[in-house]
């Protein structure tokens, strides 16, 4: 089959790779209907994290089950399924605690699983899914094609934006600032709106992203950054800052912006993968009682909550995809995101 | 009047100082019935934070109102009052948000207030209280003497232990580890018990403190620290750690212990004043979804909740005082705490 392999900086190629095969009783083979490129895929693409040897890439996909191991009971051949950006058994103590990204038996796409099998990267034609029962969620029926983009966001960005909001504790009537206007930041706006925030500020300098932010529920847009951005936030909120700030970038600059935008006693929910040496200024946090909560989003744990609203069209997070390309053009998909010509690119094998 | 002045390392003296005088309409003069020495007073006492010039010290007291400014309406001459370890107006946006330690008009004992008056240190005979209405809480009647120690803990340590538990989110049925067996740590155990924790681990190596910990609700004691301590905690909780960990020390070592003792998705509530360069390991926090929340405890905001249980003897946080001395022996009070001969010392002018 064909799958994407990253070879180094700005070098991703669609290549012939071995077809996946079932190897444990609990696995499944899924034919990919749609995959996409993640902001975090850009770190190796840009060479920020070096690629030591070529490897499969991509961790977001939806598809149709083609085969299942003999122990699989929750999905069957022909089901349309959503996969989170990791695999998990759904039964260990961490999964039961809702932190399925810390599954004791789980793993990541494009890597060997803990039983020695291989979990394919998502930017390909097929994926072998370890722990199919714990990992995959089947929709009640095969959805219409126009729902695919929104369903695909449940694999990562919508669940991750939701995790930022939930980790911060966004509640009805609260005020929220979202730092980061990528797909995750935009989804964090949508998540905050769903959770009842009364005022949502998008920190964004890009007209196209501001438009989506408004559609998703942003009530205010702030283009300024740094001291000026913090001052603009405080001016909106009694001079002290917002109740909750959602950090969806992962740089030192964005984390500082987030912490300084929270009011005393506020909370930063963060989901930006800490890139480089992002540090938390503990004395500032202590003095202002600003908390920091978040991490690798346990998106699998959120699918049941978010899926009905996608299926009923109450929310349309798929709006973050502003470019669709055939899988054959995966290199162009990366380039478009790298050059900010697209917010997020959907790929169809 | 007499009040305590710190001159430098291991040099605290009771000295004659000017009597406090009312200087704004909103202030009050309180005759101190009981004060005490705080773990944080030991930082300057030990020279860890240098004393550049002699200054008043002490920030925990209860007493009787002797005089009030013309604008004061919530307390009157003769009232027995509890003062938090800071003054606050009770009306600014941060006070309304429950974060009275960030009061826009507040200040600290032993320092000038924002209107240019002086707020005396608590380890003395009398204290001028700026913002008497926002700061002081009167008990319904003058309490019996044996209640004084527990009432005094509402000025700091009980409220601070409660803040650790509330910041972490301790809830009925949850599991808690408390790092630190000083007065605040012990009160954090009591607070967790009140909030319904089903299992509470005290990290303690001192038999006297272990005994109080048990009285306050600890179900388990762990003496080990570092890797061994973390392993012992994990062994108690499904191999993954506790739901909530309360950090009540403020060193890098104690914060590391706390973070590593929390299960994935858990929360560290911290109230130990960060001493030196305590850092938060953001990549570990991100990977495990362990959050960190807390800071300078807004104890004034908790008095109304905790006071009835003290008055009805449901809780007896005053148990942390294992030595009472006359104010004249303040130097011995510091020495006893410094040398760990006492958990916490109560002073009576």
Give a short synopsis of this structure.
Two copies of one chain form a homodimer. The first copy, chain A, is an alpha/beta fold and 349 residues long. The first copy, chain A, has helices spanning 42-45, 93-96, 132-135, 148-153, 157-168, 183-194, 207-216, 226-236, 252-261, 282-288, 303-311, 330-338; strands at residues 2-8, 11-16, 28-36, 55-56, 61-68, 80-83, 111-112, 118-119, 126-129, 137-138, 175-179, 199-203, 220-222, 242-247, 262-270, 291-294, 323-326, 345-348.
Question: What does it look like?
Answer:
Two copies of one chain form a homodimer. Chain A has helices at 42-45, 93-96, 132-135, 148-153, 157-168, 183-194, 207-216, 226-236, 252-261, 282-288, 303-311, 330-338, and strands at residues 2-8, 11-16, 28-36, 55-56, 61-68, 80-83, 111-112, 118-119, 126-129, 137-138, 175-179, 199-203, 220-222, 242-247, 262-270, 291-294, 323-326, 345-348. The mean pLDDT of chain A is 96. The first copy, chain A, folds into two domains: 2-156 and 299-348, Medium-chain alcohol dehydrogenases, catalytic domain (Quinone Oxidoreductase, Chain A, domain 1, Alpha-Beta Complex), CATH 3.90.180; 158-294, Rossmann fold, CATH 3.40.50.720. Chain A is of the alpha/beta class. In chain A, strands 3, 5, 6, 9, 10, 17 and 18 form a seven-stranded mixed sheet that branches. Chains A, B: GO terms for molecular function: oxidoreductase activity; zinc ion binding. Chains A, B: Its cofactor is Zn(2+). Chains A, B: This is IMP dehydrogenase. Chains A, B: It comes from Cryobacterium luteum.
